[in-house]
Amino acid sequence: MTEPEAPLADPRGPAPHASVVVPSSRGAALLPQLLEAFRAQQTHLSWELIVVLDGAPADSRRTLGEFETDLPLRVIEFPTNRGRPAALNAGLSAARGQVLIRCDDDLLPGPDYVERHSHWHDSSSAVGVVGLYRNVFDGRRYAQVYGRPNDELFRARAYSRPPADTWLFWAGNCTVHRSMWERVGPYDERYTFYGEDSEWGRRLMSAGARIVLDPGLEIPHTKPVASSEVRCQRSFLAQAVNTQVESRHGDSSTLDRSSRPKDRLWSGVVGLGAHGNDAECYRLRGKRIDALLPFLPKSLARRLVSWGVESAGIAGRRSVGAGNFSLGIAMGAQRPVRGEARPPSER
Length: 347
Hints:
Elements: E1 18-24, H1 31-39, E2 47-54, H2 58-65, E3 73-78, H3 84-94, E4 99-103, H4 113-119, E5 127-130, E6 133-135, H5 141-160, E7 173-177, H6 178-184, H7 196-206, E8 210-213, E9 219-221, H8 228-248, H9 253-256, H10 264-272, H11 279-292, H12 298-321, H13 327-331
Parallel strand pairs: 1-2, 1-4, 2-3, 5-8, 6-9
Antiparallel strand pairs: 4-7, 5-7
Helix pairs in contact: 5-12, 8-11, 8-12, 10-12, 11-12
């Protein structure tokens, strides 16, 4: 009888405990500070860092080359841009660890980042972990009147949301066990420009995972939305995508619950502004709001931005019900403004 051949050993050695996947498109200016943060990790766990260059610009490749001797680094290159979902799928499919951590290239992880994410999966594989962003704003008027105060309010409201809503916050600082990734499947690559995070988070919850928000994993976000123009456009898209995702799962209850007190007068004013048909309408409205901000007192300026953002969100939800929003539109005509990071959910 012929003895069965022993399996060949992996030439890369034992698989690491954790894999960190970083999708990066035109991120050459962001990668050095991110890689320095990973070089400062303090953990006894074995781990690897996989950077997926979506479009593979030469300056990003050079930056990564400078860190290859200091980090357990692997690089995947796409010759042309294929979108964030495809980059995530490539990185997660190549990962060898049991704990799969995602970190976008405009984030700054602390020294316990890998350790803390990993420990969440010590006792259960049926958990998804999210760390919210602490947005780092510039000195523009938008940041003064709306960006900074709303950032703090956003996090406070997020932590108060019920467990059924936590999928809404699935974004660029998160982790799952390999078994959950294999159960849920890859990111939907049709969401080329927006919505892949909340869609995957909703599928993760439907697969039986408990999604938790860990305050200890809050992380600086160095490239947040920095204008009313982008914020209003994103509000329309985020609410449209979330409504679309919930309708596919047959339950829109999480989106019907408001986390702010009802104000009939304010609701009426916001409703009057919610009759636009697409994200471009609200991008242009936000641009006009930005032009007014330097001339308005802070309280009125913040109210004006809030009106633009909230009316855009309502219009986004309505666009799904009216049949004016589809996955194809999200990929094409309603493409978000380039050059600024996409926020999770309603941010």
